[in-house]
Amino acid sequence: xxxxxxxxxxxxxxxxxxxxxxxxxxxxxxxxxxxxxxxxxxxxxxxxxxxxxxxxxxxxxxxxxxxxxxxxxxxxxxxxxxxxxxxxxxxxxxxxxxxxxxxxxxxxxxxxxxxxxxxxxxxxxxxxxxxxxxxxxxxxxxxxxxxxxxxxxxxxxxxxxxxxxxxxxxxxxxxxxxxxxxxxxxxxxxxxxxxxxxxxxxxxxxxxxxxxxxxxxxxxxxxxxxxxxxxxxxxxxxxxxxxxxxxxxxxxxxxxxxxxxxxxxxxxxxxxxxxxxxxxxxxxxxxxxxxxxxxxxxxxxxxxxxxxxxxxxxxxxxxxxxxxxxxxxxxxx
Length: 333
Prior knowledge:
The chain is α/β, with parallel strands linked by helices and 333 residues long. Helices cover 29% and strands 17% of the residues.
């Protein structure tokens, strides 16, 4: 069967699936402090429906699946879904993006079910600041989650840090220090205008050259590094002599759209071929018909723009399409 390609020849073998729009934190860049409306439970895809979508796409070359949220581990018995997807022929990599709070209870179960690795979101190592960013979270619980993932063998473990000017940019050296004696990949991610492209976002945005500057200030020499988990968007480096690595993800200042291989499926069953634009295609009514599912994914890819134009949003310039109104927690990142 013809693989999943878009008009620009990009091959799509990776899908990010949101299993819920709910979360046990309220991070400032992901959700509003209050007034968030969550999808009714009967509008959320069942595990059987999610598995059916993956089964429909695997013959078209889908190989990698990432489970996201909201916080995916607030969905009951997520390890059952991991096992269901793991049994699909052709799927050889299943990963999870989580805030880590529930990993101590779940890491071993997820590994046994077939989970390959985890990305853990952690935007500050300081309790007062972490509590402010997450609106009440405890950083010690995330650190215990990282330990649980290490003990379970969910490697490589990637730590996602959304870098925000005037909020956590003075912790860059602290985060990189985590890689000196541990096999962690700390990834600094530019703040993106998803669902909230306001002046407050622009004021917090910070280009990632700051990270390299911090290494220079610390007297650290760096070298390019490769990770065993494939060709993601991160530009990875290592402090010479360090066990772990750090990475830079520039979705705004230096977008990686030319090599995009990602599809997205929201928790309520909408296909998003691009994280940033509003275009969506409701696949849930078609799930019992694999050919129709495949056709709708091809239609979504056929309308996928060449890039997301976030840099134009930063400069307050006109864009060619309509940005999404959904917040990050409603898409799955």
